[in-house]
């Protein structure tokens, strides 16, 4: 019932309009409320290529690295090493490149022994190739890659430090194993380590490569690696060797500087002798080093020049492990 | 006398003209020859600010460095050190900042014992100030400065290596003596070395300064130093100390990065005990370290902020002095 307003015909119309609009507004609010309740939950998504990652994965792509470990015939070592590496701070994910063709991965067993600190992805390969580890894996979300051989154990301290060094030299291969090439009067190059003649630039030795079997490098180089001349792939496949030398050529060509930065490891171990498989690494083959000299010369041929440059910078961690490791008898 | 040509009047004119022009040409050639003989000899001049340098000075300004050594009351050490440093490869010139006010420099004796590998300039000072060595000397022709205390001997090997490192980090102070500041809960800073608490960024120690008493840095920073706030100069003059801390503040503010890069010296010696003068350095004063903590806090005040940044990078020379100094028990 109306009050004194009702007596006016215009106001009667006004009241009906007011009622109508009120009802419409209330209905709209109810519908909006219902829609809001039905919206999907927006996930916290810092990663460029979002996937369904567990909520524990909070490290951003810039502050962490991906471990890529290729494995062949040493699953016992692989699992031992995974237990160690999975707990390294700033590790984002592990990619295991499974070169055991036709053999089941240990994924089931891995999952049954969860939870794990980070996701581990087993990439099953179809052919047992050395360069399988240099694919541009879509699972890669970080800028930094840590590449490790499946028989090499590097301490968490060394890795944390080397990662901090890589962040200061992101265009270089920052790692623990330095090697060099030398020139001979004939113009033919030879590959080796400190037992080889110094290149002769001042006193001391020089290195021109850092091996990728224990090193950090930018994931962009995996992308670059897919765009190399065919003969490079043929060389690596023919020798089942030298993918790391090829990567050093690639990086040196890209930067015009020494490809690597050598970080002196405090605790690096080769667990090869500990394997039950009896399988010993490729580097035991009689022709291994000769092959690598061969690869250096082939790559110079393919790229029409020697891009590797020498460096004598050796980086260690100030005050670690000995808090006065820089003290001198001043 | 002419021949058959003379009979023609036109040709008579031609002959006279020919003779005349021949004579003119010959005279001009003679004058040109005389002038050429009289021209001064053009000196080989690669240096931007050319001065009358002896012909032995062939190192370009980019490939060499200038040693600046300030001296007070230790002329015997100075001369001993000059004999060592004057022979360092890639040394361009020595500037001795003579803080012995009113005392004659050893220039006469120096000259009488010539020839010397490089020029040595004695800059006589009017007041004995610590910051005299931080003037923008017009004698400076190189991009790089090596600053040395007058009681410090660093081996030629260390200097050659550190210079090569400086060329890779030209905006940093590259030297042999690292120090740090630490923050305390009260917000007051303290200055020290490895005996002080680690700053707590991961394991191991950190340094935030490299002292200029044994270091390479860019000569441009001497120019910058002339443009600092007056209280900085007052602080250095008041304490007769801390010019090196001030330089580290300057460099850190300029780069936004750690001011220094520490190169671990193989052979660095303090010859202080060898002086006949009995004069012992400023750092023996009881208040020396306390003064330096005081300076850190004053500079933070003057610059309204703490610009120093930490680093834990320690650089050594690969394969020197031990040719396998990077070998590990892999």
From TrEMBL, chains A, B:
Record's GO cellular component terms: endoplasmic reticulum membrane
Main location, first listed in the record: endoplasmic reticulum
Membrane-crossing segments per the record: 20-42
Cofactor: Mn(2+)
Keywords, sorted A to Z: Disulfide bond, Glycoprotein, Glycosyltransferase, Manganese, Membrane, Metal-binding, Signal-anchor, Transferase, Transmembrane, Transmembrane helix
InterPro entries named in the record: Glycosyltrans_GT2/GT47 (IPR052427), GT64_dom (IPR015338), Nucleotide-diphossugar_trans (IPR029044)
One GO process term, biological-process aspect: UDP-N-acetylgalactosamine metabolic process
Ranges of residues in domain Glycosyl transferase: 65-320
Protein function: Glycosyltransferase required for the biosynthesis of heparan-sulfate and responsible for the alternating addition of beta-1-4-linked glucuronic acid (GlcA) and alpha-1-4-linked N-acetylglucosamine (GlcNAc) units to nascent heparan sulfate chains.
Record's protein name: Exostosin-like 2
Record gene name: Extl2
